[in-house]
Amino acid sequence: MQQFNDSVEVTGVRMTSDGYLTGYATVARSGVQLYTGAELQRPDLDVVRVYRPPEEVFSKDAMRSYAHRPVTSDHPSEAVTADNWGVHARGITGDEVMRDGDVVRVPMVLMDGSAINEYNDGKREISMGYSAVLEWADGVTPDGERYDAIQRKQRMNHLALVARARGGDRLTLGDKKQEVTVMSDIKLRQVILDGLTVETTDAGAQAIERLTKDAEALRADMQAQEDLHAEELKTRDADMAKKDAEIEKLKAEALTADQLDAMIADRAELLDKARTVADLDYSGKGAAEIRRMAVADAIGDDLKGKSDDYVEARFDILAEDAKKSGESRSRVNDGIKQAAPVNDSQAEYEQRLTSAWRQ
Prior knowledge:
By secondary structure, the protein is of the alpha+beta class. The protein has three domains: 2-186, no CATH class; 187-253; 255-326, no CATH class. The chain contains nine helices and 13 strands. It has helices at 54-57, 60-65, 85-88, 113-120, 202-253, 257-277, 287-299, 308-343, 345-354; strands at residues 2-7, 9-15, 21-29, 31-36, 47-52, 70-73, 89-93, 98-100, 103-110, 125-140, 146-162, 189-193, 196-200. β8 (98-100) and β9 form a beta hairpin. The radius of gyration is 56 Å and the shape is rod-shaped. The relative contact order is 0.10.
């Protein structure tokens, strides 16, 4: 079991006819509460979020333990028991323990005159002392709150009247609000939050500092993600612009039907010329390669080191010569065809027989 000094809310404070001081104390609530790591023997942690499940806070054993507890002046250095009750006790809690929503309320009374005088002199804050089992386990409550440990088996030991508790001097017994939320006797700190000065406990300040660092890290990460996304968009836009330019270039280079017809005609003419120079297979060859193949075959030279302009000039000469030679052969053949009937005696004989009747 671990000892705790926690916040207590007190309402309905009054003085009885016997001079006793009475009121109702809110001794426990369910949910998550913050502690410093040092308070829970975990100096390696700045803040510990402790979860009190409702089934633990409102269990029968826990509820029964709130009744008939001693009220002390300050926290004693030891747990209050029957052996030292007379030394430490200045009052007692009642047995009308009740559940009020998510809190437990119990009546209390200060019966010692010196303790009542301390109260009248300004010692008006209340701190609850109790024991509980702390189970270290990370998790999330049904309400969505994150916690680092679970508190179980709460057992009330005493209520202490103190001069200053964790909640500060505004949370005093019998003030206008008639409530106290006290945890332990520590000083408050001032921290700057979004330009505002906030007064809080050491645990609260540590929690604020941790959350502030987490928020700054989150903002930095978000900015890095935004920068990366912007760079990706910039790269994508550049790629799209490049593709658009390529498309426009292809459109500009695309051939019209007339241009395609002209290219086909030019190639057919080139192939015809090439075949008059050298009858080779020119399939799949470009214009320059066709001329080079034809000329090389015609003159028996591989044309290494010769420019395309030189090859084209030789090709045109060879093609022109081939054309002239073809025309000469044609004229010769035509002359042979015309003279043949004259030199053909059989044809002449047949011609005379055909026209003899006319004579």
